[in-house]
Design brief:
The complex is a heterodimer of chains A (84) and B (269). Chain A has 2 helices and 4 strands, in the order βαβαββ. Chain A has 84 residues and is α+β, with helices and mostly antiparallel strands. Chain B contains 9 helices and 8 strands. The chains are: A alpha+beta (84), B alpha/beta (269).
Chain lengths: 84, 269
């Protein structure tokens, strides 16, 4: 699964971890894959849950040897309000 | 426009809301809003719109801060007494959010200045305290096709609505003429419970943000009436008046003339 975009939020804390993930997804097209690297436990718990509740698909969440987690999200349409 | 790292933090609670997001926050930052009046209604409106990151706030008021203002005009402080309200308001806004560009107009709305000033803005908020100004700003907003977010307060009662013909009526549809001088207590005579403009100003700020975002249902064709003593909120359906002098089928007001907007002078506080 080839990501279209990669986001590193290993230095961030909640809720900025999710805020940055959401902003990255807003800029993508439905079906595209966002790869996210995250570090702290709270983000590992919260970001996938918040992303799912916005209607996106979480394909993978894997811990790596360096303690950093890798998350693969598929952007789905319909969660955004575009009044234009 | 891309949000900076600081803006991502500043507006995090907005960005996570599905109806706002990064795109909605960018719309707020790009919006230009004119406040006519920096008093009881203008104070809370300006503070919250500044916090929300509305990018350009125009503030129009020729008055200076006086001691009797401070019971409700929460943007000003005791140290501001004697200063122009627009200067005091600008300082407070800059302290809250340097993202906001504040443009001050230390003058009262008049037939000479209102069209030119209003034309640079996306929306206009009625935060004034007298009928002459309210009719003037309403008519100017209709002529320039700008959304007009209305609010008014007296004693324990308040009203708010969004006027944006042809989507619903204008203020003049509702009240064709100002009451004759003396029929209604003016300015300082009637009094107002201090928190009331806060509450109505919040409704105006809310409708402004929703209008910019295109989110939810606005008070278009609806008048919100608030009775603080009964703690009662009522929404009244209001329709356009085809005979309206400014937004009706055959308008007689097609330009602004000073004769139409006269009022008794207010004794100074």
């Amino acid at each position: 699964m080839q990501p279209h975009k990669t986001l590193d939020i290993t230095a961030d804390y909640c809720p900025i971890t999710f805020v940055k993930t959401k902003l990255a997804l807003e800029e993508m097209k439905p079906g595209e894959i966002l790869e996210v690297f995250l570090a702290n436990e709270e983000a590992v718990q919260n970001v996938p849950r918040s992303v799912r509740s916005d209607g996106h698909l979480v394909h993978l969440l894997e811990g790596q040897e360096n303690g950093i987690y890798r998350l693969l999200i598929e952007k789905r349409g319909g969660e955004e309000i575009d009044p234009d | 426009m891309t949000l900076t790292e600081e803006q991502i933090h500043r507006y995090a609670r907005h960005i996570v809301i599905p109806e706002i997001g990064g795109k909605g926050q960018e719309k707020l930052l790009a919006a230009k809003v004119l406040l006519v009046g920096a008093g009881g209604l203008g104070s809370p409106v300006a503070l919250y719109l500044a916090g929300a990151g509305v990018g350009t706030l125009g503030i129009m008021d020729g008055d200076t801060v006086s001691l009797s203002n401070l019971q409700r005009q929460i943007i000003h402080t005791t140290a501001d007494i004697g200063r122009l309200k627009v200067d005091s308001a600008k300082d407070a806004i800059n302290h809250i959010n340097p993202d906001v560009q504040v443009i001050t107009y230390p003058e009262y709305a008049s037939v000479e200045n209102i069209l030119q000033i209003m034309s640079a803005y996306d929306l206009v908020l009625d935060c004034c305290d007298n009928f002459a100004t309210r009719y003037l700003v309403n008519d100017a907003a209709v002529l320039l096709k700008k959304p007009f977010i209305y609010g008014s307060v007296m004693r324990f009662d308040g009203q708010a609505a969004v006027f944006y013909p042809p989507q619903g009526p204008c203020y003049r549809c509702l009240f064709p003429e100002a009451p004759p001088p003396g029929a209604v207590p003016t300015c300082q005579e009637a009094g107002v419970m201090g928190v009331l403009p806060g509450l109505i100003g919040m409704v105006q700020a809310t409708e402004t943000i929703k209008f910019i975002l295109g989110a939810g249902d606005l008070l278009l064709g609806k008048l919100l009436v608030y009775d603080a003593l009964a703690m009662d909120f009522m929404k009244i359906q209001i329709g356009p008046n085809p005979e309206c002098a400014v937004c009706g089928n055959q308008p007689t007001i097609t330009a602004l003339h000073a004769d139409n907007y006269q009022q008794l002078p207010c004794p100074s506080e």
